[in-house]
Write a structure and sequence with these properties.
Layout lengths: L1 H11 L14 E3 L12 E9 L5 E9 L10 E7 L5 E8 L15 E9 L6 E8 L14 E4 L2 E6 L12 E7 L2 E6 L5 E7 L4 E3 L2 E2 L1 E3 L6 E3 L16 E7 L10 E2 L1 H4 L6 E4 L2 E2 L1 E5 L2 E11 L4 E8 L7 E2 L15 E5 L5 E5 L5 E7 L10 E7 L7 E9 L2 E9 L8 E8 L5 E8 L5 E8 L5 E7 L5 E8 L5 E4 L12 H19 L4
Length: about 500
């Protein structure tokens, strides 16, 4: 009977034969990043936003069989849920193929630390991350932007040998047109036989140059981010931006921002993962991303911003401290009720630090500690503006590792903005008592809170839905009972109902 039922269901329903929360082709169920999604066993560095159409977009590093930062084999995965909880469709947005997916190798090129935000005026979604050439991470990055200046304009430099000294650059990449850019000789400013496509793969005389993928016999295209390529980029980190105009179904060609934002004396300048923010300056929308500069001994937060829809970018000043020179690294930015911005930063103390900006992220007040926000130092923190008010005061949420000695005891705190922009923290919700590292929150269409958390152990990223009541108390909502906006079509809803029915039958007859 069981076998006959299974065969009947398989023959009559075009549904994935998977249990709940198991990865299927291009889709997952109930959790966006289940083990083995797209062949990756591990994920890190969550980002989460709610789109204008009500869908929820999540992003992580795909770390395959490891949990290490760059240098290693890392790519960027994005998942979108039209119903805010159950159904997730995922896309690999950034991917290098100098090494096969799934292997751990510190010689690989990599993408790390994604951060997202959606424009309120154009609905364009921006996704920024760090891109590293083969074998490079933040610590090994060489100081410099990786650019050369030609006739007053900065261009990405290319090398045919030592790529650790910018004075040895022999080539540069010109402006892109129709998906390609010519490679020029730096000395003569003349075109060469080389070109690159929009993904920075290398061509000569119009033909793609190829190489053997490391560790396999597969032939892949050379890329100037690969050490094996005939021409290579500078050995530093690069800020890699893409955007989507269709709610994450497709993504643009990448735009490298180093010419706009990275200093010539800086080893590392990278994204503060999680979510960016949209604000208004002089009546115009400003897209703002948190960033941080890393030297050998100290790190400083700053913001980059665009006032023209992402065409050009500017960089604000590095943050400083009120009483000491200390680190402010991975940061999340929220809006103040009066229109300013507040940045909450990871730092070396066991309290979270913050500073304010009243010019759209260009400059920041000297950072100080909030003694009400005690927890693990040197760990990313998440902060979120909400539309909710309690006693007429705007609600702010914070999530972080509440244990002062280890990345553990995840908490979500509810705060109320006072008239002077101070925050009174009125309640604490304990997500868990075990391992807890990075997290990111978003307000869903119905006012509940989605949170993407690293918990249990490194490599595990889970999605939960929380509710904040009128007194500021938080509870977790079971996904089956969660009220949420649904941006699926009627056809998609019917399809998913059939799938749910199918999975229940499998469980009933113990076939799943």
């Amino acid at each position: 009977m069981k076998k006959g039922l299974a065969l009947l269901l398989s023959a009559t329903m075009l549904m994935p034969s998977a249990t709940a929360a198991r990865a299927t082709e291009k889709k997952t169920y109930e959790q966006p990043f289940m083990k083995n999604t797209m062949g990756s066993e591990t994920f890190r560095i969550p980002g989460l936003i709610t789109l204008k159409n009500g869908s929820v977009m999540a992003t992580v590093d795909m770390r395959y069989s490891h949990t290490q930062d760059s240098p290693n084999n890392l790519d960027t995965l994005v998942a979108v849920s039209p119903d805010g909880y159950k159904n997730w469709a995922y896309t690999v947005v950034n991917h290098f193929d100098d090494y096969p997916d799934g292997v751990t190798n510190e010689a690989s090129a990599s993408f790390i630390d994604p951060v997202m935000i959606q424009s309120k005026t154009t609905d364009r979604i921006f996704l920024l991350c760090d891109a590293f050439p083969s074998g490079i991470g933040s610590a090994a990055s060489v100081p410099g932007s990786g650019c050369v200046t030609v006739d007053g304009k900065k261009y990405l430099a290319l090398f045919d040998g030592d790529n650790t000294d910018i004075t040895k650059a022999k080539y540069y990449i010109g402006d892109f047109s129709n998906g390609f850019a010519s490679v020029f000789a730096l000395a003569s400013k003349q075109k060469t036989a080389y070109t690159v496509d929009s993904e920075y793969r290398l061509y000569k005389n119009g033909e793609a140059l190829t190489m053997k993928q490391n560790g396999t016999e597969k032939t892949v295209k050379q890329n100037v981010f690969y050490i094996e390529s005939e021409l290579t980029v500078f050995r530093t980190c690069f800020e890699w931006l893409r955007w989507s105009d269709d709610n994450g179904k497709t993504w643009s060609e990448p735009m490298v921002l180093n010419a706009f934002v990275k200093g010539e004396n800086e080893r590392f300048y990278g994204a503060g993962p999680g979510r960016g923010i949209v604000t208004t300056v002089n009546g115009k929308e400003r897209i703002v991303f948190p960033m941080y500069w890393g030297g050998k001994t100290v790190e400083h937060f700053s913001a980059i911003y665009s006032d023209d829809g992402g065409k050009t970018w500017q960089r604000g000043e590095n943050a400083s401290w009120r009483n000491a020179v200390e680190k402010t690294s991975e940061t999340q930015i929220v809006s103040l009720p009066n229109g300013g911005l507040r940045a909450y930063s990871r730092n070396a103390f066991k309290c979270i630090a913050y500073g304010d900006s009243f010019d759209g992220g260009k400059t920041w007040t000297k950072f100080q500690l909030d003694p009400q926000l005690t927890g693990k130092n040197d760990c990313m923190v998440s902060f979120l503006n909400t539309s909710k008010k309690i006693n007429g005061k705007t609600v702010l949420l914070a999530s972080f590792a509440g244990n002062r000695d280890s990345r553990a005891n995840g908490v979500v705190k509810v705060g109320l903005f006072e008239a002077d922009n101070s925050v009174t923290w009125i309640s604490t919700y304990h997500i868990n008592t075990g391992f807890f590292a990075y997290s990111c929150m978003t307000e869903l269409s119905d006012g509940s809170i989605g949170i993407l958390v690293e918990e249990t152990e490194y490599g595990v990223v889970n999605y939960k839905i929380l509710s904040v009541d009128e007194n500021g108390n938080i509870s977790e909502i079971n996904g089956e009972n969660a009220p949420y906006a649904d941006s699926r079509s009627k056809k998609e809803i019917l399809r998913d109902k059939w799938r749910d029915f199918y999975l229940r039958l499998l469980k009933l007859f113990k076939l799943a």
